[in-house]
Amino acid sequence: MKRTPDSIRQLVKELQDGDEFSRAQASFALGMLGEAAVAPLIDLLRHDDREVRMRAAWALGVIGQPALPALLELAESHDSTVRIEAIRILGVIGEGRSLNALFHALTDPDPRVAQRAAIALGRIGDTRAFHPLLIALHHPAPDVRFAACNALAHMNVAEAIPALHERAEEDTGFTSWGASVADAARRAIQEIEASNPHVSTDQFARVRDLLRSQPDAQARG
Predict the structure, then answer these.
(1) Is the pTM of this model over 0.90?
(2) 9 in a domain, yes or no?
(3) Domain of residue 111, CATH code
């Protein structure tokens, strides 16, 4: 496929108006075109049809780094749906330059955006996300706390175990689809411990208890 404006316009039209096979073929071809297709695909992330947005997002994920500047700009859009799509693709691309945008998205007023940011950070797996994800374990929205538990499991950082134990013991929240946050925390602990056989659960329990006792000690002082 030639990288001409006419050929790109034709593929964009097929992505929006074609049958399922034509849409799949068009999204694949646009992804292969690289940087030349970034601008029209970015426009499609605002499309009313969710399937069109998803296929455009997939193509941008295939394009990768050339799409980063536009995606980072979209991550600050006033439209939360656009922010969600941009953040999801940033997680697929997995570029370290997107970390600051994802950290900011963890504090987004729309919990759907914060949830997607936690998922993206877990997919990227950069340990610089460790502390932001620990903070996200206390987000008011269960969907975000659930995603943070899973992200910490993917990062496989043993130091997350005390905070995950706290969620497992104290979190009574359920996600919008009915999943237990406490169960997600327990699964995360199991995954981390399975990957770190040298980790002592008793040791982390002592650390957790010590952290909990600090406010009392400060109050007495």
Answers:
(1) no
(2) no
(3) 1.25.10.10
> Does 180 reside within a domain?
yes
Model pLDDT for residues 43-90, shown as the tens digit of each residue: 998 888 888 998 999 999 999 999 999 999 999 989 898 899 899 999
User: Is 218's pLDDT higher than 50?
Assistant: no
Query: Which are the contacts of 126, defined by CB distance < 8 A and separation ≥ 6?
Result: 96, 99
Tokens of 116: 């997607």
Q: Which of 170, 122, 123 is nearest to 142 (CA)?
A: 170
Contacts of 101 (CB under 8 A, 6+ apart): 72, 75, 76, 87, 90
Domain count, the chain: 1
> What are the structure tokens assigned to 215, written together?
């406010």
Q: Is 62 exposed, middle or buried (0-12, 13-18, 19+ CB in 10 A)?
A: buried
What does the alpha-carbon distance between residue 135 and residue 28 come to, in Å, rounded to a whole number? 38
SS3 state at 5 = helix
pLDDT exceeds cutoff 50 at 186: yes
% of the chain exceeding 90 in pLDDT: 67
Query: Residues 151, 185: contact at Cβ < 8 Å?
Result: no
**What pLDDT sits at residue 95?**
85
Are the C-beta atoms of residues 42 and 74 closer than 8 Å to each other? Answer: yes
